[in-house]
Amino acid sequence: MSKKLRIGILGTGNIAKQFAAGVQRGYRCSLAAVGSRSAASATSFARQFGIGATHGSYDALLKDKAVDAIYISGPNSTHHEWTLKALRAGKHVLCEKPFALDAGQAEEMFDVAHAAGRVVMEAFMYLCHPQTAAVVDAIHRGQIGKLKLIRTAFCYCTNKIEGNIRFDRKLGGGALMDIGCYCVSLSRLLTGEEPAAIHAETLLHKTGVDELTTVSMRFPGGVQASFTCGMLTHADNTAHLSGDRGWIEVPWPWKPTPDKSGFTITQSIAPRQDQKSPAKPTAPSIPPRQTVNVPVEGDLFGIEADEFATAVLDAKPTKVPRAFTMGNMQVLDEIRRQIGLRFE
Ligand SMILES: NC(=O)c1ccc[n+]([C@@H]2O[C@H](COP(=O)([O-])OP(=O)(O)OC[C@H]3O[C@@H](n4cnc5c(N)ncnc54)[C@H](OP(=O)(O)O)[C@@H]3O)[C@@H](O)[C@H]2O)c1
């Protein structure tokens, strides 16, 4: 059997559990150790996922010689500190999104990784998923003609405010950092460009973080993109991509599951005012619609872990390259500047 990448999980919260379960369903990583601020939490996590080594502090985890790479799953404000420490301890790093609090932190994290000769990647799991590649491919093959408009949403409505890291300004909370970062990244991925203009509006929660943010972006090639992200609002959480010959609807752009993987392509038909006057009024024709199923073997987080392992073990480029993460962080910085969201 080929060598597996031995992962140490740093932090034992919600996403760490999803990631650990994904690693178990993947092929190229093993769960070597877990570290928590609480020894009891590390032990309980280890028991749940059958992990042999537990550490009652993050520093102890970084000293574990049986760990090749650290998965950083703490609040956004901890990503910079623990990524740097892990890299300096000789580990590769897979760090949860958003990679850092700002572009300055992100730049330093990549510089330190480069100097240490270690791989670092932002854990944007949907970017590793074949559905995302299939959508990009459909656009590039001209399935909807020239891409003109991108509309996305990523919202949820939570009851938990107290003790929720997403409502803590000092921990880098807020809807933009938590889920708006997905929408920014998809627009940049599909256009292959950085926005030339950005306009953001927000509703700040009394905790000081943004609870509902809407952004519009204009890209140099002419594409316009808009998105909404919110933590106290329901939305359809889809991606609509419009061109001059049709449009694509992605019902589950952010968290595709094996049975919900795919999208539809609808071909435009001539608008009624462009058609010859019918003798009597007719119902509008139904435009032809094609469903594209993307067969996927494996779990969203398992695919991500395997992609990261491929970058480390086979010395391949990461699925989320430095330039891509840096571009995202710069857009997030500008939006935060416009909506007055500060973390200090
Ligand atoms: N990719 C995705 O699909 C996805 C989904 C959700 C979240 N995320 C990202 O993952 C990160 C964590 O989110 P989560 O939902 O897992 O949060 P969570 O359930 O609140 O867990 C965060 C964990 O971070 C550790 N931690 C370290 N310092 C902390 C502090 N000052 N306050 C609270 N916890 C602290 C804790 O682990 P210990 O007690 O064990 O030290 C805690 O369990 C965020 O960066 C978020 O953006 C990604």
Write the layout of secondary structure elements.
Layout: E1 5-10, H1 14-25, E2 29-35, H2 39-49, E3 53-55, H3 58-62, E4 69-72, H4 79-88, E5 92-96, H5 103-116, E6 120-123, H6 125-128, H7 130-140, E7 147-155, H8 175-191, E8 197-204, E9 210-218, E10 224-230, E11 239-243, E12 246-250, E13 262-267, E14 289-293, H9 300-313, H10 322-339
This protein binds NADP nicotinamide-adenine-dinucleotide phosphate.
Report what the structure shows.
The chain has ten helices and 14 strands. It is of the alpha/beta class and 344 residues long. It has two domains: 5-123, NAD(P)-binding Rossmann-like Domain (Rossmann fold, 3-Layer(aba) Sandwich); 130-295 and 326-339, Dihydrodipicolinate Reductase, domain 2. The strands form two sheets. It has an eight-stranded mixed β-sheet with strand order 8-9-10-7-11-12-13-14, with helices on one face. It has a six-stranded parallel β-sheet with strand order 3-2-1-4-5-6, sandwiched between helices. α1 (14-25) crosses α9 (300-313), α4 runs parallel beside α5 and α8 crosses α10. The longest helix has 18 residues, at 322-339. The termini are far apart. NADP nicotinamide-adenine-dinucleotide phosphate (NAP) is lined by residues 11-16, 36-38, 41, 73-76, 78, 96-97, 123, 125, 165, 171, 178. The site of NADP nicotinamide-adenine-dinucleotide phosphate has 22 residues, from α1.
